[in-house]
Design a protein that fits this description.
It contains five helices and eight strands. It is α+β, with helices and mostly antiparallel strands and 172 residues long. It has a four-stranded antiparallel β-sheet with strand order 1-2-3-4. Strands 5-6-8-7 form a four-stranded mixed β-sheet.
Amino acid sequence: MASKNNKVKSTGDIELHDRLVAINRVTKVTKGGRTFTFAAIVVVGNENGIVGWGLGKANEVQAAIAKGVEAAKKNLIKVPVHNGTIPHEQEAKFGGSLVVIKPASHGTGVKAGGAMRAVLESVGITDVLCKSKGSSNPHNLVKATIAALGELRSPAQVAQNRGISIDKVFNG
């Protein structure tokens, strides 16, 4: 396997849009009563091939979301998007979640649920078929989806690895 370095170095000139995937209220029982805190999973992307996720925890919802956005900006990856879909089928597993992502023809739309949909729309994918198996935990689904997108290879990368032209990748 060729080593891949698809991490995005800086976010200075990239316009990122954030999406809230899930918010979780956590209760801690103390001597003085119950203390509520919030954990927010956030996905950011420029809808043109760059995506990242983050987890923020705070005493208020807005602060947790802001922390999640800052964390997401620190681990962005570049995803090859080919005509609004992905170049090839990919599956990935994280924890108890297994995700399968397949390319689809133009006009299909994003056939994915909840946490996966937020990630795929943040990347800028408009036509894709997805299936999640196993756990539906939003944490694991987001991480598995990002892992699957991170393993995708563009046609140019495949041609370079094989030592052939891009035309031969598509035409056998």
